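seq as requested:
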Amino acid sequence: MNKENTFTVIDDEGKEVVCEVLFTFESDETKKNYIVYTDNTLDSEGNVKVYASIYEPDKENMELIPIESEREWKIVETILDSIQEENREKTDN
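struct tokens:
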């Protein structure tokens, strides 16, 4: 794993958790930057857990800001769905 594509967060229990950046993007609609990442753990159905937050790429210390609006979640979900679809098409070919 490339070191540049990971970062560490502290979980609710005070443990360090290494997260892998899946992708980042800036929304034309909200003018905010989003980061989509995973800690590579699985949910109860065996799917890899994926998280998203707002972040400011120009800040020296990255701070993850919670996404609170339904509209912003829709934007993230749409991008995630399109990337998953692209990956599915690549695997099928």
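The chain has one domain: 3-92.
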